UniProtKB/TrEMBL annotation:
Domain of life: Bacteria
Alphabetically ordered keywords of this record: ATP-binding, Cell membrane, Membrane, Nucleotide-binding, Transport
Source taxonomy: Bacteria, Pseudomonadati, Pseudomonadota, Betaproteobacteria, Neisseriales
Domain ABC transporter span(s) in chain numbering: 7-238
Xref: InterPro entries: AAA+_ATPase, ABC_transporter-like_ATP-bd, ABC_transporter-like_CS, ABC_transporter_ATP-bind, P-loop_NTPase
Single GO MF descriptor: ATP binding
Organism: Andreprevotia lacus DSM 23236
Protein name: NitT/TauT family transport system ATP-binding protein
Protein's UniProt keywords contain Glycosyltransferase: no
Listed Pfam families: ABC_tran (PF00005)
SUPFAM superfamilies for this protein: P-loop containing nucleoside triphosphate hydrolases (SSF52540)
Similarity section: Belongs to the ABC transporter superfamily.
């Protein structure tokens, strides 16, 4: 099992330069993520969700503030952080086994150890028996499973997920959300999910970070104190989902009243047959 990392983001600001003028993208982002926690980040397009993930993975260096993993400033990419994008980005000329093995090219392991680790992670994502298949022989959901296995094969401290199921159909997405939860629990690592799907955010996250755009900043953090696995049809789940959705409506949060099932039926209700 991998070591779960502690991530600290302190007073993070990020801007680009467009036609000689500064364009603020992220403003005063501060967030502490505990070891083994699953944090979902939601927000409309342009709120800087993916930029934040790129900074955490180390793909961009120019920013103000601090991003710390286990107390050390993040500098560049590293094997202690794995990432899964919306597109699986598999090499079409490599098999499933070889694509997952790409993640171990620089690992200090013997060939036998690499083979064992790759086999373990292919089994972890439910693709045992597909080791020699090529990407064109896989469905979109299966390809994303390979991408997840490749991101995890180094046993990173933090798994970053940038809209990993956004291109999939609703049924496949729902199934893979369940699978991702299972994989996260099995690996015991810290996970950060960026998504525009509020239901997905609530289903997977211990907390949901709501961001607002231009420039991107944290509007609110919503706790999700529900046991796993979660029932999407439950009243408690719907309450939290509606609470998060209210942050994207014109209704002020203070005007949104969460009621109990009994209250929603009214004091003097009866059924007519």
């Amino acid at each position: 099992m991998a070591h779960a990392g502690t991530l600290e983001i302190k007073n993070l600001n990020k801007q680009y330069t467009v036609k000689g003028e500064p364009l603020p993208v992220l403003e005063n982002i501060s967030l502490s993520i505990k070891p083994g926690e699953f944090v979902s980040i939601v927000g409309s397009s342009g709120c800087g969700k993916s930029t934040l993930l790129r900074l955490v993975i180390g793909l961009e260096q120019e920013y103000q503030g601090e991003i710390l993993l286990d107390g050390k400033r993040i500098v560049g990419t590293s094997l202690d952080r794995g990432i899964v994008f919306q597109e699986h980005r598999l090499f079409p000329w490599l098999t499933v086994e070889q694509n997952v093995g790409v993640g171990l090219l620089n690992a200090d392991l013997s060939p036998a150890q690499k083979k064992k680790t790759v086999d373990e992670h292919i089994a972890l994502v439910g693709l045992k028996g597909f080791e020699t298949a090529y990407p064109y022989q896989l469905s979109g959901g299966m390809s994303q499973r390979v991408a997840i296995a490749r991101a995890l094969v180094n046993r990173p401290e933090v798994l970053l997920l940038d809209e990993p199921f956004g291109a999939l159909d609703a049924l496949t997405r729902s199934h893979l959300q369940q699978e991702l939860q299972r994989i996260w629990e099995a690996e015991g690592i810290t996970a950060i999910l960026v998504t525009h799907d509020v239901e997905e955010a609530v289903y997977l996250g211990d907390r949901v970070v709501v961001m607002q755009p231009r420039p991107g900043r944290i509007k609110r953090i919503v706790d999700v104190p529900l046991p796993r696995s979660r029932d999407r049809g439950s009243y408690a789940f719907s309450q939290i989902k509606d609470d998060v959705l209210s942050e994207f409506s014109d209704t002020p949060h203070s005007d949104v009243k969460l009621v109990t099932p009994q209250e929603s039926l009214g004091a003097n209700w009866q059924f007519a047959w």
